[in-house]
Amino acid sequence: MANGPSLSTVTRSLSLLDVLHANQFEGKSFDPEILEETEENFYRGAPPEWLNFHISEQAELDGTGSPFIKRDGYAKLEKQIHKLRKHPGISTVKLFHQPGCGGTTLAMKVLWDFRKTLRSAVLTGSTSDITKVAEEVVHLFTAGSQGDQKTVLLLVNGVQVLEDLQVSIMRTIANQKIVTRMPVVVLLSCIREDADLKSDDVFLQEVLSDSEKNHFNDKKTELNRRYGDKCKRFHGFNIMQSNFSEAYIQEACSVFKTIKETGIQEKTLLASILSLLNAYVPDSHLLESQCLDVFKHANYSHRDISLEDISLEDMLDDFSHLIITIQQDGSEKRVCMAHPLIAQCCTELMAEAGVTRSDTAKHLLTCLCRDKVPRSLAAFVKYMLTKRRLKEKGREENPIHPTEMKEEIDSFSRLILHIQTKEDDSQCVSLLEMATNMFDQNPFFPQALARFHCIVLRDYDQAEMWAKEAKQRDLQNSFVADTLGQVHKNRLKNLRRPAQPGGILALALKAIRAFEDEERLAEDEVGTKVKRNVHDSRFFNSRGMFGFLQVCNLVYDLLVSQNPTWRGVLTKKVSLGSALPSLGDHSLLRFNGLINRLRDAVEKKCAFLDGYLTYSKPDIKEDDPEYISRQTSACYRKYVGDSTSSHLKEKGADLIQKLKLKQAGTTTGVLSCLDRECTESDLKEITTLWEEICLHKDPDTAMVNNIFAHIMLRNMGAPESDCKHLTAFKQEMYLTDKSEAHMLALLLHWPTGNEDACILDLSAMIKRTQDLYKQAYAKHFRSRYLRPLFFLGKGQELNRIVHRTVLEGSARQGDWETMQDWSDEKIFQDPWVKERLLKVRGEIREYRLFATVDGKEIEVVANLRNSLWRKRKVSFYLGFTIKGPVAFAIQTETADTKELLSEMDSSKPCGLLKFGACGDEMDARNLTKLKPEVNRVDEVQTFSLQSDAGNYECSVSGLRWVCKEEVSFKYKFLSWEEHMRSPVCKDYMPAGPLMDITVTSGQIEEVHLPHRVCIDQTSTFSGQFAVLHVVPCCDVVEEVAKVTSSHIKFLQPTFPPRGVMIRKMAGIPFYYDVLIYKTNKEFLTLDVYVVPRDSALQQEVEEKPKSSGSILILNPGPDKSMQMGEHVSLTTDQADAIIQPSARELRYESIFFEVLIRNTNSDFTLWLQSGKDTLWTCTIHKGDYQNQSAEH
């Protein structure tokens, strides 16, 4: 392969990534003043630079400084990244941190320390073109040549782009036909968060551990020695060293306590503006020129000293120690407060001195936003005044799907809320009005102002005026348009009771027009480039449709509560004209057009939202808020379902209306029955009604709905009933131009191995289903996650079709935390689920998945695309979304044949077995045994092996492998203890060592993990084995395809840590060894261990006797297996012997007996017994315990 360009050449072409080179700064000399300034700025509170880590590293090497402080999260991050380096494709590690806790510093330190083993980089450029970002990441991974691959460690601030970036990187890899030999990228996501998170996350808080306190105290001593009094200005360091002491922060900010006496001076004004900005906007700053503008605006130039003759630091005077100046890459200097906590404290002290938050915000606007405002400052002001967060403590507004309707989002920005609570409502209004006037093209300030008038002041006239102003500023933005509809809706909701029907309908008309306009704009946004600073066009705005239904709910409740006649009018059972005498107001006739179209519009919008919520959800991890479906259903029942309209005269119309009463008048309605928790009697009626409709109207659609209803009924557990149309549908294929009918055909015709060959062209059917999905749903679903509706199960005909809710219900009974999240696929580890579903086999190649069906390959989509990185044979469960089949829980196939047992003597652990890449029989005694090289680091032993092509066995662990080329690898033993507490392992116990294997060169074709269960051809235990795979996010249990008498076989293995387990049950026979040690005690004392024939456990046992100088007495191991759980006792023929304890229960761990014999000078015998059965016997000769020494 030709050499590609050098890495330095590649990195120069990357405009969006800041690449950290392996030899960064090596051999480069620096001006000592630059080094000192860089270090001082960092300790004062400036963000770290790569040079800071180099300075610290050199000082440590020179012996002039202590190591760079790493907060406690470092070790966990490092461990996670090391683990993820063993997994193909793309992985993510998340570091959550509170502002000012050293999160960014920790993340950069991790990148610095990995720079020689990974290609470390920071995503610094714009993410608006995510494809360009992905291309640069892949270019860095390959360094311009497929022969120069190295995993990228990429630091990404926030989580907004993670999902899209992963998809785009995989697409780029596939398009460029790159064969990856290692993980492509580990994404280190650094996220500001101020709430406790899951235990798996790394989270830095405003509190130090004891070890962190010690490190900071040591560093403080060093800095005091080097910098003396300068250390008093090192606020960034000192705040952390003081464990974020409130007293220290108050003392540092004490200059603000003099404001009442000195008044507001120019320096005070600038410091207050910077404090407010930094307190409410992360990573905000002012340019040095903007800071000088504050002094100019305050007429500082009237003094004798010119602005050009004095530095900004001198102008700030006694405030200067609280403020830092940063300059990078020759750009203009940026100015900010030394620490977010200082900014917050200063803001509070200013308020106590009478300079309120609203005063300071207005000063910012008047001083810095009068003329042309730099883009960065405009963004800071927008964030400060309009950015809303989730009410739930510590969670930011959903950055992945900002358009989804959330109940817990704060009503206003944090600053506006603080002004409201600490000052008054009028200050919020005047501040937002000022921003609205100064930023006269921006729609978000008048939008926030409209919301404040509506929600807080309930001044709906003002709210309407500002909502219209916001809309006028961005005529194409549906999300801005939503505010006007919400204002009208809230006005209607809060009408004084009783309200006149005319007033109700007039307001409703205004709200409906606003929401319909929003809906039109949302439709127009499809396929167009809406403004990126508002909402991403990947998300369809359904608020207009839902707002329409909310208004209809209000209209119905308000009118019907006054006069029941309105029920018939709104449902079109009677006309408005005929009802006017009863209603008593003939002027209402002007609303006839509105009333006439409400019922049909409600039915249409409910049908859309029913499909929207049934077929999809915001993302793979979470569902839509429950109130959307609840209010949608309520509106449907009021207008459509609960009354029969007199105008329905066509054949079968009465049957359709009965179905609408059950909310099952459409295919989507039938498919959502189990989500809505229909009763069995409801479903039986729905099934019967659709069967009757087949005789009257649209028989093809009715047939599909009738079959789906039968499927739903069976999934509810109802007794089987005859589905009369099933055979006709399967034979005649009555396929409408609906993806639902094609999905049904796929469900019914997908071969399971127990049926005749498939008569369908499955690939063509899948393609047609996908095309119909694009026509009907893709426009609105866009990036939403498509729910699996059904799964392919075991059984025949309709009985094999399993609805998603059936699996979720089973998993909930198993105490699963939540079934909203399909990203971890934990539901498929549930034993009941595994028993219910059918395994489909296939193959992954070129990042695509193919199911093997009747000897043909059918491409299917994977639920988790990260499963597609490595070419391999796989098995999976097949789910069906409205777009077609999807593979879930993809697992590597370990063998193509059924379970095989070796033909051998059951009393021996080794014998003749199927072994070798070609499946030829090989005598295990002819394997080449290799002794590993052993290295010990911090009490952890690593075993390294190297071999040419052939069949081998490790002499220590019994691990076997087959390779066709030279291969090198290493392994170490891991403890089972932590993993046995995992829910997926609760039904299993260890059956062999847990091993962490790393291949360092070459490729292993087969690996055979040792197990210690005694099995032969008559054993019933062979089907009870499983293998634990330890992956970063969870423990995964995999079924075993091939068991031999002593090993579990894997073809083309990957190497996450793994070990053999067996299902817990009585009477499982295990192989054990007996280890006897003579101690150094006064009388003859033997420590006797009964240990499973597991190298890892025996290694643990051997450590303690060795350290105490005990001597191993060699003995033949037990010939017989022993049953787990049975009680065994150790006895001897020495009359005066004391053996403690008298009996022990056998477990998959070592058990211990102590044998004390005061007077002996002859041979004696030990027996291990279970009841009357002797399991092991051994004669201890006089020479075994008298002549041995520690050197033996």
TrEMBL record:
Keyword field contains Cytoplasm: yes
Domain of life: Eukaryota
Primary location: cytoplasm
GO CC terms: cytosol
Keywords: Cytoplasm
PROSITE patterns: FIIND
Domain FIIND residues, every copy: 923-1192
Pfam families associated with the record: FIIND, UPA-FIIND
Localization in the cell: Cytoplasm, Cytosol
Record carries keyword Zinc-finger: no
UniProt protein name: Sterile alpha motif domain-containing protein 9-like
